[in-house]
């Protein structure tokens, strides 16, 4: 656990502010715009700067992935509570078009998805949460698609 991030339930505004000060995000130009109080939605964006451009002047692919990396894991930690182990398990990114200007990503986990995960955890003790999200440009065109797999396991006491 990162010593800068408090354990347990963290108010969304506190986590948002901590993430916006996190050195990897500062260096990449990633900005957490919004975390819904119940952690069901997160909006992240990244402007194009001289320090996050690739050789041809568009968004560096590593920064595009980095802006999507921890959010489903962080959301599920808060949504499922302290009795669930939550780990990022796998990811895949497909670049669809050059990222120019500001790009953004919206992460959403519905109450129905949370209930289904809780049911499966109660039944089997573990489950993989799989979700695909899109990184969009200002014209809402897809710049990249990211598949995320987050491993969930019920803690044993």
Give a structural overview.
This protein has 157 residues and is an alpha+beta fold. The protein has one domain: Hotdog Thioesterase (Thiol Ester Dehydrase, Chain A). The protein has 5 helices and 6 strands; from the N terminus they run ααββααββαββ. It has helices spanning 12-20, 23-28, 61-66, 71-80, 111-124, and strands at 30-35, 41-46, 84-95, 103-108, 126-136, 142-154. The chain has a 6-stranded antiparallel β-sheet with strand order 1-2-4-5-6-3. The longest helix is centred in the C-terminal third of the chain and has 14 residues, at 111-124. It is globular and about 50 Å long.
* Strand percent estimate: 25-35%
Q: Describe the strand arrangement of the main beta sheet, using strand numbers.
A: 1-2-4-5-6-3
Radius of gyration: 16 Å
CATH fold node name: Thiol Ester Dehydrase, Chain A
Helix content: 25-40%
CATH superfamily: Hotdog Thioesterase
> Count of helical segments?
5
In the CATH hierarchy, the architecture is Roll
Structurally, how many domains make up the residues?
Answer: 1
Span of the ends, CA to CA: 20 Å
Shape: globular
Please state the average pLDDT score. Answer: 94
Major sheet size, sense and barrel closure:
6 strands, antiparallel
Oligomeric category = single chain
The sequence of SSEs as H and E is HHEEHHEEHEE
Structural class: alpha+beta
CATH class, anyone?
Alpha Beta
Spans of at least 5 consecutive residues with low confidence: none
User: How many E strands?
Assistant: 6
């Amino acid at each position: 656990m990162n010593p800068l991030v408090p354990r347990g339930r963290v108010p969304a505004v506190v986590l948002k502010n901590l993430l916006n000060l996190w050195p990897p995000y500062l260096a990449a130009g990633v900005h957490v715009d919004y975390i819904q109080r119940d952690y069901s939605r997160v909006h992240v964006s990244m402007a194009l700067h001289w320090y996050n451009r690739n050789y041809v002047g568009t968004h560096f692919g590593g920064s595009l992935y980095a802006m999507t990396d921890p959010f489903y894991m962080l959301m599920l930690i808060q949504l499922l509570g302290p009795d669930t182990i939550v780990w990022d398990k796998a990811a895949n990114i497909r670049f669809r078009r050059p990222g120019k200007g500001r790009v953004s990503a919206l992460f959403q986990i519905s109450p129905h998805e949370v209930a289904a995960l809780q049911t499966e955890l109660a039944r089997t003790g573990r489950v993989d949460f799989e979700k695909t999200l899109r990184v969009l440009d200002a014209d809402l065109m897809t710049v990249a698609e990211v598949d995320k797999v987050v491993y969930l396991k019920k803690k044993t006491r």
